[in-house]
Amino acid sequence: MGMNKALLVFIVASGFLLFIYANSSVFNRHLVQKDTPEHLAAAAALVHQNLHQHHQHHHPPQQHHDTKRNGTASEDVISSSHGDSLAASKLKRIKYVPKGANDTEYNIFIIYTKESQNLILHSQLELFLRSLLKYSTVELHLHVITDEQSERSAEELIKQQIEKFHRIAFYTLYHVQDCAEKIGDIVHGMMPLFNYRSGSYYSDALFLLSLGLHRIVDRNMRRAILIDCDVVFRASVKELFDQFELFAPDQLFGLAPELTPVYRHVLSRYRMNNPQTVFGSPYYLDKFAESTNSSRGKKAANSVEMRRHGYPGLNSGVVMLHLDRIRRSRLYEEIIKESTVKNMAEKYSFQGHLGDQDFYTLMGFEFPGLIYRLDCIWNRQLCTWWREHGYSDIFDSYFHCEGAVKIYHGNCNTRAPE
User: Fold this and answer.
1) How far apart (Å, rounded) are the C-alpha atoms in residues 93 and 187?
2) GO annotations under biological process (predicted)?
């Protein structure tokens, strides 16, 4: 009988403690957070992720994520500094899933490595993120290609700026070594032609990464833009993504013109043997007027300005990638083969030093139908190095860019205006 009473007292006491715990503020707060629309959406994204991973069981995912800090590729939630949970900024680290689960196809790739060896890289990324989020009108998915030494700093900057501007965004981390392994054949074939000095294998791969990005990302990703960290936005990146709608059916990439005479220099031998070529010429050639007179006495067209464009090469500070088309293009697969690239370089007596930019420049001249010509206002480069190195007399004709600038590119460590 004594044992039964003791058991009864234990059961009653346990029930009382459970009742108190269930009504505590901690338990209630957990329920409120779990049931918010934001958390339900995040849960749906993770369920979709798991289903996607299940379907890919026999095909390892093409993306790689940093999982060391949290143990899984789970979400991070950053609360608003004002304490308003409904208006809180949300920053999620998830595997890429198609539109509908992460609700965005605005995929922006950046490369952020070797921070300790580049004293201004941190400030460049901070300014990049600040301007990107300040003008953004859409939810973004940031894809950061990084290394173990730089990833923590990159994450901290992303979190700070997301919270500062109260934005909703996703981000995914990729390890540079994993990315490099997927484009090994491209690196091997192009490195001798487009790299003036050899660093480590992975360093070389970074300069050619955009050429094989379609191999690295999830196959469901249709479009992406790779942007250098040293750019500053003056407009919403949505306007840049809208340029995809202007691509012709066969165009795979979108790049703006190079605004320095670097390729005039690289192509000096070819231009000497082909004086009529526009390869290596300024984008804006001289205006000329064309007047037409009618033999019947009709009023002539007065000074109709016709604009001819040269081909100064392309700049890879902003690269638009139509990923689904790139994957399907047999022509592109042939072009990136070592033999094809070598033939193009020999044809133009071309020995470059700017990685993927050199390749795009050659491909854009040899296969112009594959590249959409992005206006210079979306990659307004600021480097003036060539003005002081032998080209002061013609530099301004290359440096010229017409229109209201949407993106400034502070290459050569030039400070871009905020």
Assistant:
1) 29
2) protein O-linked glycosylation via N-acetyl-galactosamine
